Amino acid sequence: MTTDGAIISACRVRRVFSMPAGPVTAVSEVSLTIAAGEHIAVRGPSGCGKSTLLHMLGCVDTPTGGTLLFEGRDVATLSDRERSLLRLRSIGFVFQRFFLLPMLSAAENVELPMSEAGVAAAERRQRTRELLDYVGLSARADHRPSQLSGGEMQRVAIARALANRPRLLLADEPTGELDQATGEHVAALLDRVNADGTAMVIVTHDHALAGRARRILTMRDGRVESETAAR
Amino acid sequence: MTVLPFAWRSLVRQPARTSLGVLGVAAVGALLFDMLMLSDGLIVSMRDLLERTGFDIRVTASGDLRRAGDRMHDTSATLDAIRRLPQVSTALAIRFVEAEADVHASTNPVPEGATGTIALTLEGVQGDTRPWTVVTGRDPVGNQEVVVSQALADTAHVGLGADLVVRARCAARDQVLPPARLQVVGIAEFPFELVGDPTAGGPMNVLDDACAGPTDEADVILASARDDVDATAAAVRDAHPQLNVATNEQVLGRLQRNGFTYFRQISAVLTVVTLAFALLLITVLLTVSVNQRLGEIAALRALGFSRGRVVADVLCESVLIVGLGGLISLPLGAALARGLDSILKTMPGIPGQMYFFVLEPATLGQHGALLTVTAVVAALYPMQIVARLPIAATLRDEVLS
C-alpha cells in the first residue's frame, strides 16, 4: 500500500476490546487509504465497528493490530501529547450530540480550538466570523447553544471542527439527532466543506447522507464488507 | 480562551452548586483561620503584654505565675539588692491583695440601685517606676492616693478626686480589717488586669495602711535589664538563688509548655478536621461536576485539547472555588474570632488585655498555603478521572446513553 500524498493509510487495522466475558473484536483487518479531498461514507448495522474505525482514524483510539499512518507518521508511536496536537491541527470532529459547551456562545465555541492552538486573538475573531458566516449563523454568534436549534448547533459544531483548517473532517452520525429537513441542510453544508477541499469521513446509518459520498464503505462484524463508488 | 476564564465559565454554568461550594469553603476557611489565630494567639498576646510592661525579668518566690502563689519576704532588701546590680536598670516590687470596695461608703454621688460592694485587686508598688500607665490624672504619691482602672471607675462610680473606701483581705480570707479611705488621683491601664476583676494601685504604703501595717512582702519583682536580658537574669539568679528568676521568654516558654498547650492541641485537631471537611466538600463537588461533563471533556480531547489542558481546567475550578471561599472566610473568621474571644475571656484569670485569637502576617500566609494545598489535593481525584478518560469509549457511551 502506498502512502504517497495520503492523509491516512490504514493497513490491516484491528481493534480488540478486552471484556470480562472475553475479547471482543470491534474492527478486524481493515485497510484504507484516505487521500486529500476525499469524501467517504462508512455505513453498516449498529455494532459493526463504524464508530470504532472512525475513532482510530481520528487518533482518539489506538489500533491493537495493524498499522495506521497519518500523513506518513505511525500513530502508534506518537505520544498522547503528539496525538492531541495532531487532532488539534489536522483533524476536525463532528459528533452526533454536537458537544457544544453550553456556557459559551456560538462564537466562543468556534474560537475554542483556535485558542488551544495558540492562534492570535485578532486572527481568531476574524476566522470565527468567517466560519459562522460560512455555516450561515453570523446572526447567532452571541447565542448560547441552548438558544439554538439542533440544526444550528450542528452547524456551529461543523464551524468549530473547521476552525484550525483541518485536512480531514470526521463526522459520526452528524444528522442522527436531526429531523430530515434539518439533516438535509447539514448534509449540504458538509458537501460544501468537502467541495472546498477538506477530506471527509462520515459514519452514518442514513442512506441519503451516505449516498452523497464518493466512496461508500459498508461494514459488517468489524470488517469492510464492500466498497462502492456512489457518484 | 485560557484556562482560568474557561474554568470560571464552567463554574458559573452551575451557579447554585458553585455558590454552595464557595460558601462551604468560606465556612470551613473561617474556622481554619480562627484555629490558626488561636494556635499562637495566647502566646503572641502574652508576649505583647509582657513587652508592653517594659520589664524583662520577673522574680517570684516559687515560680508560680498566678497572683495567689507564695510571697517573697524582706522585699525591701531584696529589691534594693537587685536594683544595685550593675546589669539592672530599674526594678519594682508589687504586692497584690484582694479587696472589696464599699460603693455607698464613699462621699461621691452614687446612682440609686448601684451595687453595694465590688471585688477588686489592690496593687501596692515599691520602686522608682510604676507597672501601670496613667491615662488621665496623675500618679499617686501620697499615703492614701491610688489610681484605678477604668473598669473600677465605672463600676464603683469613682472619678478623679473621688473617695474609694476599700476593705482589704491581706492574710486569711476571714480576717476583718478596718476600711481604708483612699483618694482616686488618676485612671490608669493595668496590663494584667483580669476580666471582671477591676484594679486599684498605689504606693506600697497604701497597701500597708489597708492591711493594718507593713509586711514587707511582695508577689513579684519586675526588673528591666540595661543590656543583655539573659545575663541580667543570670546575675539576679546568682545573687538570689532562693528566688525564681525568669525572663519574659522563659515565662512564655513555660506557658507554652503548660497552660497554653491545650489551645494549641485543640487548634491543631480542629485545623485537621476543618481541612478534611474542605477536602471532602471540594472533591465531591468537582467529582460530580466532572462526571456530568465526561462527554464534553471527551469531545474537547477529540478536538485536540491536551490531557494537561483538561486537567488544568479541573485544577483551576478547584482553585477558584477555594480562592473565593478563602477570601470570604477572612472577614467571616475575623468576626467569629471576635465573638469566640469574648466568650473565652470570661474564663477566670485571663487578663483583659490578652486575646485568644491574634492575627499575624504569618497566619494569613499559613491560611492561604493550607487552602491552596487543600485545593490541589481536593482536585487530585477529579483530575485523575479527567486524565484517564478514555476518549473513544466515553464518546461511544455518551451516544448510547
Write a brief caption for the model.
With 231 residues, chain A is an alpha/beta fold. Chain A has helices spanning 50-57, 80-90, 106-116, 121-134, 150-161, 180-195, 207-210; strands at residues 6-19, 22-35, 39-43, 65-70, 73-74, 91-94, 168-172, 199-203, 215-220, 223-229.
Series of secondary-structure elements of chain A, N-terminal to C-terminal: EEEHEEHEHHHEHEHEE
Which stretches of chain B of 5+ consecutive residues score pLDDT under 50? none
Strand content of chain A: 25-35%
Helical run tally of chain B: 12
Instruction: Calculate the mean pLDDT score of chain B and round it.
Output: 87
CATH topology of chain A: Rossmann fold
How would you sum up the major sheet of chain A?
A: 6 strands, mixed
Distance between the termini of chain B: 30 Å
What does this molecule look like?
The complex is a heterodimer of chains A (231) and B (401). With 231 residues, chain A is of the alpha/beta class. Chain A has seven helices and ten strands. Chain A has one domain (6-229): P-loop containing nucleotide triphosphate hydrolases (Rossmann fold), CATH 3.40.50.300. In chain A, 33% of the residues lie in helices and 29% in strands. In chain A, the strands form two sheets. In chain A, strands 6-7-8-3-9-10 form a six-stranded mixed sheet, with helices on both faces. A four-stranded antiparallel sheet of chain A has the order 2-1-4-5, covered by helices on one side. In chain A, α5 (150-161) packs parallel to α6. Chain A is globular. The relative contact order of chain A is 0.19. Chain B has two domains: 3-49 and 260-400, no CATH class; 92-219, no CATH class. Chain B contains twelve helices and ten strands. In chain B, α1 packs across α10, α2 packs antiparallel against α8 and α8 runs antiparallel to α10 (307-344). Chains A and B meet through α1, α2, β6 and α3 of A and α1, α9, α10 and α12 of B.
Topology readout:
The complex is a heterodimer of chains A (231) and B (401).
Chain A: E1 6-19, E2 22-35, E3 39-43, H1 50-57, E4 65-70, E5 73-74, H2 80-90, E6 91-94, H3 106-116, H4 121-134, H5 150-161, E7 168-172, H6 180-195, E8 199-203, H7 207-210, E9 215-220, E10 223-229
Parallel strand pairs in A: 3-8, 3-9, 6-7, 7-8
Antiparallel strand pairs in A: 1-2, 1-4, 4-5, 9-10
Helix pairs in contact in A: 3-4, 3-5, 4-5, 5-6
Chain B: H1 3-12, H2 15-52, E1 57-60, H3 75-84, E2 88-102, E3 117-127, E4 133-137, E5 145-148, H4 150-156, E6 163-169, E7 180-189, E8 199-203, H5 204-210, E9 220-225, H6 229-239, E10 244-247, H7 248-257, H8 261-292, H9 294-302, H10 307-344, H11 361-387, H12 391-400
Parallel strand pairs in B: 3-8, 5-7
Antiparallel strand pairs in B: 1-9, 1-10, 2-3, 2-6, 2-9, 4-7, 5-8, 6-7
Helix pairs in contact in B: 1-10, 2-7, 2-8, 2-10, 2-11, 8-10, 8-11, 9-12, 10-11
